[in-house]
Design goal:
338 residues, single chain, mainly alpha
Amino acid sequence: MKKKIFSVLKYILFLGIGIFLTWWQLGKLTPAQWAEFKESLLKAHYIVLVPVFILAILGHISRAIRWKILIEPMGYYPATSNTFYAVMCGYFANTFLPRAGEILRCTLLSRYEKIPLTKLFGTILLERIFDLLCYFLFIIITFLIQVETVSDFIKAKFGLIFHHQWAVPAWTIILFILLFVGISVLITKWMLIKYKDHHYVIKLKGFQIGLKEGFSTILHLKKRKQFIGHTLFIWATYLFEIYVGFSALSATSSLGMGAAFSVLSLATLAMIVSPGGLGAFPLAVQQVLLIYNVDNISFGWLMWGVTTGIIVLVGGLCFGLLIYQNRNKNEKKQFNPG
């Protein structure tokens, strides 16, 4: 009972954060900025959103196939269509209830493909672990390909905080970041040893063990190359959705692939902050665009609206298709002449 109450309170908290960030971002706009915001969206090249839609669907299909690759070594061979429908239904649920999507998609596939629920939950964990590794890889690439741009932005921010102009070379900032990461790792290791019996530390160790086991499982997959290929393709679709989406607005049309990497890196993190990235996603995108001297909130709201719209529309449709396609299975189950 306490766990359920805690889950509800946690959801209310994150939803509240999303609503607050929306109010905070839009509420501080001046009448002139409101007019610019509306005009920017009215004059957007919405034809550009067609390839964005195609990229999004291809990414979701690839995710479904990748999930199937993880399931097959257990001796189960679900239909790709059912796997795709379950994935989209999961995304649909996550838009309104964070983490509910993982439970729903496993439940649906278990029901229609007769796969044990516990085994499906294990594959979801493996997916999350590998996606986390890819996310860290994207952050590293983002920083490496834009060292000067990012370092200039950091120096400018420190200048605003301390009212002092920082003439620090980029390599010094890189060294500082590496030093900070190194010290953080050492402190974390020390805390893991000192407080080894604390329940949070036990949880963290469990995640670390899961990370190692997950990576080991990937290495022993029969279709390892396909799994890695689909993972890279999924993240590539995310990246190109943003890159192509830049062309929809005149304010962002000049931005290149480097900016797309930056938006993806921070916007992915923002999706965790509130249900469906409400408020957090557009705000994160706005802050990233400031690095490239683009003061625009329209792009973040446009991309959030498009991606959320795709999930809601396609996810709702897939729920109906899943039931319709598998109706014969239910009929056979109900009809038992013996």
